[in-house]
Design a protein that fits this description.
The complex is a heterodimer of chains A (271) and B (358). By secondary structure, chain A is mostly helical. Helices cover 60% and strands 3% of the residues of chain A. Among the domains of chain B are: 148 residues; 94 residues, no CATH class. A two-stranded antiparallel ribbon of chain B has the order 2-3. Classes of the chains: A mainly alpha (271), B mainly alpha (358). Bound molecules: protoporphyrin IX containing FE (HEM).
Amino acid sequence: MADTKTVAPKEGALERSWNWLTETQIWKSVFRHNAPITDRNRVLVVLSNVFLHLHPVRLRKSGVRLRYTWCMGGLSFFLFLTLTFTGVLLMFYYRPTLEYAYTDIVGLREHVPLGIMREMHRWGAHAMVITVWLHMFRVFMTGSYKPPREFNWNVGVIMLVLTLLLSFTGYLLPWDQLAIWAITVGSNMARATPFLGYEGPGASLLALGDVQLIHAADDARFALLGGTFVGEGALLRFYVLHCVGLPLAIAVLMAVHFWRVRKDGGISGPL
Amino acid sequence: MNAIKEFFNFFADPRVFFLLTTGAFVFAVWRRDLFVKPSVGYGLQIFLALFFGLGLLDENFRLIIGKPDNVPIVGLIFLLLFFTWYSMRQAVLNDQRIAKGEPVEEKVEEDRVWVWPDLVYVELICLVLCSVALIVWSIVLKAPLEQPANAAATPNPSKAPWYFLGLQEMLVYFDPWLAGVVLPSLIIVGLMAIPYIDTNPKGNGYYTFKERKAEITIFLFGFVVLWSSLIVLGTFLRGPNWNFFGPFEYWDIHKLEALTNVNLSEYIWLRGLGVGMPSHWLIRELPGILIVLFYVFGLPVVFARTVFKRYYEKLGPTRFYVTAFLFLSMLSLPVKMLARWLFNLKYVVAIGELFFNI
Ligand code: HEM
């Protein structure tokens, strides 16, 4: 108690090394400002960091509240990043051919000690579908699709569809009974596309004389599966879409989405 | 115990289940002052938790709930109920403020805060909690892997991934071209059209119900009652041959369900007029075609002239007819369901020759 006289600031070893570190050229080349404890530096930290720059510098208090946004958009994005990361790791182990697909998954299960990448990828995907729905639900309930945010709502709807398609294409890859039959049931619908599916209404009208233009080997379902049933072609198609096509598309749209959130005046609030 | 199980099995019958969900929904919107009470909100969560917790004692229940891919849907039920309750609660609280002439909650919190640290901390906490939840989930529950793919052995039932089970459930009432292609496309188009057909400037950026009664009621009906509850139904209550099974019922492959569905044309030509089926499909299906044409093109006009005149004047013809078309498309599902349950109606229009059945 009596010792509290020693109030003069004394630099500990930790503090000294911190000061030294933040003065080095390397540190300064990375961080161009001091710790964000003053207003000026709080602005700088957001402006000089490309990731934080997704945010504005300041935003309305209600927009920070979980009560308002439920953080569902943020979680969707975070889950997407998690899925990208775990997905890339899975790609090291998985080959999309009839010969290897199933056994590679068995291998992941049996031979990778403590492996939870597949679990994280699968449950993360389910979770992302749910968070995206709830995000849409929140945006609706706060009326945030109203002007000026109509366009961003539309970007969102397309991303919702892409999220479902990503999940759907991924479902096939383990190549077990669950996978091919779920995809068979799902893709059978395409057979009934009006005009473009060979069992769809109107398809029989598309004929040149006696020659049917739409048949099982060239209709909408064939385009989806690369074959008349869920086989080798479908596996490759779904793999490429799942690992390259759809993620790229959704990533681009996310960039647009976040940009527009800011350009439309930040998180919505009463006028 | 068995009596209780029988009781729940009864409520899970598609007809009872759907009517009950709709009833609960109507009650929640109509008596929202009661629905949004904390005791009701927490009570519902506790009831659900008890239902699933105690249900797990039953073997059949465990089999269907415990399927790894079904676990997320159990979570979805809790989350969806919670967030429906929660957003309605926020809305009702704000409505009370508006009624008293006070600014809404979001208006009170209008002043600006710094992104660093105020927002990044919230994000960080969400992110950490979410990661922990995901990792624990991944450790506890193994991802499923069944027998290798075999095109010759069709499992019974074959189910689409869970988020499409609402569509698969629609196949009971509509043919694939409608249930699998046209209606899903209309859902997407309808969602995208929302900002352009809803011209109500109020309720932008805060929770409210009173200022957006029709919009919120329609959306909740589509999202919670049609889309989500049909997913739950399709996942948990449909077994072999897409027959209905209560949550505590054994999935018996040989369960027989009487299929006595009748087309509208049979009702009219055979049972009504007793003259036998006309040979040309156009005449045979004419009554059905007229009904469908009236539903799609006539009803909106009737609406515009009578009950929804006010909306017609507010929205103008284009917006009104687009809205009416989308709304009627959405309602076509419950309409067809009721027709099936009440009259065993199979198809309104049945032109098998062209794969054109409605
Ligand atoms: C892949 C999925 C998506 C991601 C990663 C995403 C991400 C985000 C994020 C981070 C925000 C900021 C506010 C918040 O967190 O709530 C946001 C806002 C918004 N999102 Fe999304 N979103 C997705 C899908 C959707 C969907 C499906 C819709 C609608 C159909 C939508 C419509 C909007 C709108 C209108 C805003 C502005 C809300 C406001 O200003 O209050 N988004 N999104």
